[in-house]
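ok trying this again, last paste got cut off
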Amino acid sequence: MPEQTACTNTEHLLGALPPPRRFRLPTQFPEGISTMATSPQPATPTSRRPSGISRRLLLTATASALFVTATACGSAVNTADGSSSDGLITLSMHNPDSKTQDPATWQMVQEFNKKHPDMKIKLEGQPVDQHGQRMTIAAQSGTLPEIFWVYDSLAKTMVKSDDLLDLSPILAENDLKSKFAPSMLAGFQQDGVQYGLPYQALVTGFYYNKAILDEHKIAVPETFEDLLAAVKKLKAAGVVPIAQGANNSSFSVWAFLTMLDRFGYEAKYQDILSGKASYDNADFLRLYKHVEELAKAGAFPSNMNTQTYAQAVASYTDGKAAFLDAGVWEAAKIQESTVGKDTGFWAGPTFSDGVGEQKLVMNVPSAPFVVSAKVKDDKKKYAAVKAFIQFYYSDAGQKILVDNAQPPVTTYEPDVDAAKNSVFAAVLAEASKPGWKSPKAQPDLVVSAATASAMYDSFYGVMGGSLSPEEAVKNVQKTIK
């Protein structure tokens, strides 16, 4: 562990084999989405969002202290191990230790620096809350790093202030734009400006332990009725059915957000945001009543409200739970655990009383990489930024993502050894299941931070019994103005 100084302490102001089988992760994400918020992913790799209220209060209380810290201590961040300490350009991420928390990005920078010693990148990072605050202050003071990860809601604000570079000319070179499905870029466009590019893909659902299911003679569920029956049987046998952790992790309801899409969310949300309709509607209420059914059947651990998401993951990898609500970012960790060989991946249940398309698997672009507008004033820095973007989205760059159990964000078709990387292969197979589609965006991606936070709390409230379904939908509606 590096020695802490007075400066680093101040950061606390603001975790014989068969041949390889080819899987293609569908990159034809639905078009026409404009994201206002970005769904968090936990560490490895991660993005976390606190509630909108708490974030604003924290920013107000600590902005001055952070600015003084950044001035006195340079960048006041951790430089990822192995990166150049004096790079030509800086890539600022939402992890304080990219080497362990985001190995794909760390490896990408190492490979780029080897190929371009005259364009070295300094990789730095901070915890996600502090990172967002630092980028906000940097935009106001004109000191943004050359490239950085950021929540899309903040990126859109920066575009309005002309803080971000239009990346369209870079995409036009070497026909890079053709490597993307149109919808992968459409979510990061505003007023004709391509202000961002997809950092990673967001594929979510339930991991399941096949050995536990087999032991209790339970087939992998398909419908909600199947899931409810499985929950009852597992609970009676003393097995935790679904690992969930709400403590400081209220965002960890990914599979339930997909269920919301199975009750017509995608067709309804624009009218809800405009005031023509309400989140408090009969269809959504029906879903929350199903969640209540799961809760009453004992689907969730008794310590759910005091357990963190990381602890929920640990309970699954220790073989103590049958299902885990998570996403592709956990594939590598699960593969290395004792349950890796027995783990499959499931997009979640269909509903006989749902609304619209039921065969949905969440497979959408996550938060964007953006570039400071000031880069265009420095030819050397612009050339370095352009070279890194071209490398990141090349087949070689996307292979690095795949090698670190991350789906490609371009049309690159990965070869995944299903015997060696069975968990990641299972995620890719589910995401590319014939006849299944992806929503345009995860439900919390198209609303304000306050509404997204209320959505998370509404699900956990019903799961934990502190909210009735009726109260849950009303609480979310109250945040929509």
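PB: full thing came through this time. Confidence is low (pLDDT under 50) at residues 1-38, 43-77, 80-84.
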